[in-house]
Amino acid sequence: MRNWLFLLAVLVLLGAVYERFQSDGDTGLPVEHAEKGNAIGTPTSDNAENSPPVNELTFQVEPDQVRKGNLLLVNEEIAVPPNKADAKAVNLFKHKELVDGFGLLDNSIRLSPELAKAFTTMVKHAAVDGVKNFLISSGYRSDQEQQALYEQLGPEIAAVPGHSEHSLGLALDIGSTTGQMKDAPEGIWLKQNAWKYGFIVRYPEDKTEITGVIHEPWHIRYVGLPHSAIMQENHWAFEEYLVHLKERKSMTAIVEGKTYIVYYFPVASNTTLRVPVVGNYELSGNNTDGVIVTVFDIVN
Ligand SMILES: [Zn+2]
């Protein structure tokens, strides 16, 4: 009798293992992510505590990671942290090889080569749609340059020095040679398509209460994929995205057939992160209290 009971227990256990294997077998993702991730930006809550992870990424992060990366939030309350944007920015007028498919408002515009290339990729796709009159009117700005602008334009138009995304090195002001961005084909195209290239139109008309900034159809910010896609799909301002991600702890997005899982972890001191999935990953701080791990090329 005791042997029968033992066999029954083994069978039940095997059944449980088989079920677990089945649900993970197709994608290597926890089943909840795989099932709900069939539309871009569909948020899912992280259920990792309930079922032990089959695989995981484990690595150490230091507290200064909170202030580094493409997802740093900067607004009237949160300042630009010390960063290397000044060293990375080059004068585009002197680097003509980086100017391809768009114009420059003047000869002082500076940008990191990486951001210039991301912008070039985007405008080349816009040109295929017949939209090709883009102009960069502002790129990287040092605190001194922001101070001068602030004194010239005032607080309604210009951010307080130390609180401009331009000083992060991740923002661009875009104009059109054909008119105001609000109505120009370039502005309309950016609003509809910038997210595909990792950019967001950072200060939309209906989010001024959240962003604290007037409608700026010309100001785009680089955050990278899939973050721009998640914000577009859910109609979230950057502030809202970071709040939702923090609440839900993880979100899955499928963009152009590529699966990403985004995790938020609070980080206050040296921390070992355990991410319940295996793949390539990128790290960015949120500039307040934690880091965001973006996993892609997920190993099945
Ligand atoms: Zn701007």
UniProtKB/TrEMBL annotation:
It holds the Pfam family VanY. Residues 109-224 form the D-alanyl-D-alanine carboxypeptidase-like core domain. Residues 27-53 are annotated as: Disordered. Residues 41-53 have a biased composition (Polar residues). It comes from the Bacteria. CDD domains: LD-carboxypeptidase (cd14852). InterPro entries: DD-CPase-like, VanY-like_core_dom, VanY/YodJ_core_dom, Zn_M74/Hedgehog-like. Gene3D superfamilies: 3.30.1380.10, 3.30.200.180. PANTHER family: D-ALANYL-D-ALANINE CARBOXYPEPTIDASE (PTHR34385), PEPTIDOGLYCAN L-ALANYL-D-GLUTAMATE ENDOPEPTIDASE CWLK (PTHR34385:SF1). This is M15 family metallopeptidase.
